[in-house]
Design goal:
alpha/beta, Rossmann fold, DNA polymerase, domain 1, 12% strand
């Protein structure tokens, strides 16, 4: 069902990791090697990856997302007493070809058929995004894959969201932003986007400024939200 907040949308902008790409699929493909530590490592890897983006932004100590991804993995492996350089290398390589969620391609195709611009806006380093988009065969389904790297600051800094406005040539109020990460959805809404929070995992809302205009559980719901 269409939502009035999304009646005049010119572009749909998506977070990448956790929204289009399954961040746990790298560990999922290495489950045999990690055994009963696999889930704990994957969850902690993601947790530290996000924490380091926020902390480094506050510290003014930027490094790109590839470095942060490696640092987060190193922490998770050490915390679980795994010391295996070859396994670490394999997990990092797998992060360049994460599985796309099964609802991604169909939703993007419907949005583009409806005349909407589509783009990624991500913390990911440019080379990471290029690899993930190519691996998932999304290149022809996106107008742009925008990285924070040129700004040297991570979400939810307002400068990141403004990058989408500038690059796509669409004002904030006509951008539908979609993220599975509730903190990102709040940040984007606070900036001025019309946000559809993709609550894939039944999370509780964050206690932060910025309220999503809609909550969906799958990307298959998004086109109808825009009246397509």
């Amino acid at each position: 069902m269409s939502n009035p907040a999304f009646a005049d949308i010119g572009a749909c902008v998506f977070d990448a990791y956790g929204t289009l790409f399954d961040v746990h699929s790298a560990v999922g493909r290495s489950r045999e090697a990690l055994g009963d530590k696999a889930d704990a490592i994957s969850v902690l890897w993601r947790q530290k990856q996000l924490e380091y983006t926020w902390l480094r932004s506050l510290m003014g100590a930027y490094v790109d997302f590839w470095q942060i991804t490696g640092d987060g993995l190193d922490y998770a492996l050490a915390a679980n007493e795994v010391d295996d350089a070859e396994l670490r290398r394999r997990l990092m390589d797998l992060y360049l070809s994460l599985d796309a969620y099964p609802d991604v391609t169909g939703a993007l195709d419907r949005l583009r058929a409806g005349g909407k611009k589509t783009a990624i806006l991500s913390n990911g380093a440019p080379a990471m995004l290029e690899a993930a988009v190519t691996s998932a065969n999304l290149g022809a389904r996106l107008d742009a894959a925008l990285s924070v790297d040129e700004l040297r600051v991570f979400k939810p800094d307002a400068r990141v969201y403004r990058l989408a406005v500038e690059r796509l040539g669409v004002e904030a109020g006509r951008i539908c932003f979609v993220s599975t990460n509730a903190w990102d959805a709040c940040g984007a809404a606070y900036f001025g986007f019309n946000v559809a929070w993709l609550n894939r995992f039944g999370q509780k809302p964050e206690r932060l400024p910025g309220a999503p205009a809609a909550v969906i559980s799958t990307l298959a719901e998004l086109p109808a939200l825009l009246g397509l």
